[in-house]
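Data availability (excerpt). The following record was deposited with the supplementary files.
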Amino acid sequence: MGARLERAILERIVLFRHVDFESIQGLFDLCSTVQIKAGEVLLRAGEKNNFLYLCLAGKLTVHLPYSEKEEASIFIEPGESVGEMSVLDHEPVSAHVYALEDSILLKMEEEVVWSLIQSSHAFACNLLTLLASRLRRTNLRLAGKEADIDVLTGLRKREWFQELLARHLRRAVQDGYPTSLLLVDIDEFAAFVEKHGRIMGERVLYVITSTLKNNLRPSEVVARWGESSFAVLLPMTAKATARTVAVRLHEAINHALSWVPSISISMGLSEGGQDSSSLILMTEAEDALRRARLMGGGAVSE
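Predicted structure:
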């Protein structure tokens, strides 16, 4: 069954940027569209694959196997693709690919991919750019396993943030300006993952990460604090202003997670003073976070 795709759909696909659609439209008669449900496996590491899959709708997640544990590498959004490497080098698939949401994919056979490479310079350039981007992201991931980058979220880890906080607070005390610390935590995250699955839990962490980064100023720093928590440094910000920031972030995260069943976010806020240390600031923020949980969760406490 051929896939007659509209130009508007093609233009959203990274591989078809600047490609002459009229010259390749006939190739789509050799392709098909497939639908997979959330949680279904598209590709398994170690198995053969002769297809390139283009995500038209939904979301996929890619997991690179590491010994007994699988860690999320990237998320595949509409317009992106998977399966290129095994199509090009005829080696087994190097990662597991799952559907994170119900998804629609364009399934393209190996022969079609090579025909596009040979007939369209733009397609070939786009494919090279895509593979270079994937390699760069993989390098970052591998570096993160030994350095201070959290693999799943791409954020700095707790140890790095603690050192940054200590350095910043020393300067803040010396110069006499306020500093606030905000801890963000997912209520009952372990129970949520047990009920809804690891992939859903990782998606929640990814959404929170994106929301925090998109709603913070360049001077404000967010890091992965724990399995289900994040730390946000608010320089030159007194507690009253920091609480306004916290409420705004809380609302933004709740909105971004409105599609997720039965989940809530708690926040704990603290402000450093002239006699504060990074340990005191962190302890006070953790105490505030506990108070938020005692209030039933889904609250901001200070």
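Summary of structural features: The longest strand covers residues 69-76.
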